[in-house]
Amino acid sequence: MKLKHSHAVWLMVLAPLMWSTAGVVTRQLEHARAFEITFWRSFFTVVSLLVILPLWQGRGVWARMWTERGVLLASGLCWGVMFTAFMVALTLTSVANVLITMAAGPLLTALISRFFIGHQLPRRTWVAILVAGAGIAYMFGTQLGEGGIVGTLVAFCVPVAAAINWTLVQRSQRSGHVVDLVPAVLVGAVLSTLLTLPLAWPLSASAHDIALLAGLGLGQLAVPCVLAVVCARVLSAPEVSLLALLEVLFGILLAWLGAGEVPSQQVLLGGALVMGALVANEWLGWRERAGHYQIRQTETELGDNS
After folding, report:
1. What is the Cα 173 distance to its own chain's centre?
2. Which of 9, 142, 265, 291 has a CA between 20 and 30 Å from the CA of residue 76?
3. What is the distance, to the nearest Å, from the Cα of residue 166 to the centroid of all Cα atoms in its chain?
4. Contact partners, residue 36, CB within 8 Å, separation at least 6
5. Phi and psi (nearest 5°) for 260?
6. Which segments of the chain does DSSP mark as H helices, in order?
7. Domain limits at 178?
8. Looking at the 3D structure of the chain, how many domains does it have?
């Protein structure tokens, strides 16, 4: 699938919009709770990807998954933690808390990759990590007296697992193994389904709940994950990271409009620190790379003229 840059940008706006529907949909459920919500969403993600993968990549995808089973299992474990922790966190705290906590993922990835695979971090990234950390610490501190810290701590498992996942992928690519992330999503969904079924039993979801969770499995997870992988082949990593942050804004807005969940002042302030640090870091990095590219272009032109 070949995309123009502008088309990839719009699709990458659509992906976080679809991701952001989880919070408002969860608030519309009648009987399903915590682990059962996670079970049904993961189950329908498995069903969706079992159809999408062979249609998109051909039946050979199953043989490739077996060949790469070691890396896919490790990446799938991380996806499984993300799927499970995300939905459980939504039942324990506000949508805004969950999404803003998850937004720290890119900075945690930078930090973990620095210590485990030796990536050098520029000063701007260290500053962004400190500012974002202060924002999250502030949100944690305000919740200690409110008893809502458990949900935020569960949500924090999502960016930690994501950071480990991307670091594993980078390390495997360095050694010559290119990981296809969509089959890894399927592995994670299978693991999440198997883990949460005994915890969710006996199942109590109504037909209404199951229909909504089926929609989440297909439209909130399977399809946007495929879109993001396709867009990442056209867009640069900073572009993908910045556009993915729209999930935070969309998610808070949808929960506000669709479920009457107004974010607290403390969450907005802590979130502003996290989001500001992320955007500033990515924007400065983009300017730095653009400046280096311009210098190389000028040197090339001068060399040709001489």
Report:
1. 20
2. 9
3. 11
4. 196, 200, 203, 204, 205
5. 65, 25
6. 5-19, 21-26, 34-57, 60-67, 69-90, 95-102, 105-116, 123-144, 149-174, 181-200, 207-215, 223-232, 237-244, 246-259, 265-305
7. 5-305
8. 1
Per-residue pLDDT of 217-235, as tens digits, reads 999 888 888 888 788 777 7
263-285 residue pLDDT tens: 777 777 877 777 787 777 777 77
Q: What angle do CA 181, 22, 93 make, to 5 degrees?
A: 115
Instruction: Name the residue with tokens 């502003």.
Output: 272
Distance of CA 49 to the CA centre of its chain: 17
Q: Does the CA dihedral 51-247-29-90 come out positive or negative?
A: positive
Distance CA 55, CA 182 (A): 13
Identify whether 202 is preceded by a cis peptide bond (ω within 30 of 0): yes
For 205-224, give one letter per residue: b (16+ CB within 10 A) or e.
beeebbebbbebbbbbbbbb
CA 203 to chain centroid, in Å, comes to: 28
| Calpha distance 274→269 (Å, rounded) | 9
CB 275 within 8 A of CB 128: no
- Total residue length of the chain: 306
110's tokens: 């930078």
How many Cα neighbours within 13 Å face the side chain of 289? 10
- Enter the DSSP assignment of 218: I
